[in-house]
Fold:
Amino acid sequence: MKKTAIFFIAWSSISIASDQVSSVLNRYKEHLENGTYQGQDWSIFEVKPKSRYDTFKYAFEYFEKNNGKIVVELGTTRSFVHGGSPGCNTSNLAYWTPNNPENWDWGAGFFTRVAAESLVHLHPTIHTIDIDFTHIYRSAIITYDFRKMIQYHICSSFDFLKQVQPQSIDLLYLDTGNMTPIEETARMQLAEARIIVERNVLSPNGIILIDDVRNQTPRTFGDTSGLGKAKYSIHYFLANGYEILMDEYQVILRRKK
Structure:
């Protein structure tokens, strides 16, 4: 009886931990989907790409399954509210409503907060990086209740990647730069990709999650690549031993086994 009880307790704790990702993402599913799709023309797709909800779920469950410990986010959550709304990209605390997620900046994905909530049961270390102090300040406010598991870095993505230990990152989120002008951002992400590959910063089971690959904003300004921020980086990764695991609004890659 004792052995059975111990096994039941152990199994139950694992089951509860595994439910954390689904519980958090299901709570935010509508917001994640609206933030992915609203305000953009998807008519060029026969099948609309899956939303951030689906790729976040895959990435977080993969991280959990492979006993991930280190998350790195290049480009932090920088606004309390959605782009174009009053208070967007300002530091006025009146616009931060922690108990009203419908007000949050879902158009940008809100990765820092969602990752912290989804993975808190695994006790990871999350490094969030941004070159702008005000962005990091707002991110720290947004994630205040998860601050013990987050390290906030005010530096360029290049500087961070150049000093991080090789084979140390289990989940790498690429989200630096703006959607316009896209050429500048895409070349920045290519430079990040070169450092990632050359320094071999992913752990053996690490994955890369790239945001805004299918964002339609660049197309409205004449870009024809269909790959947004990642129009150079994805080709570089594929040419250097990586493979795609999910190819949707976001793209997930890993090194070939």
Residues 21-255 form a domain with the Rossmann fold fold (CATH 3.40.50.150). The chain has one domain: 21-255. The beta strands are 70-74, 125-130, 150-154, 169-174, 202-210, 242-247, 251-255.
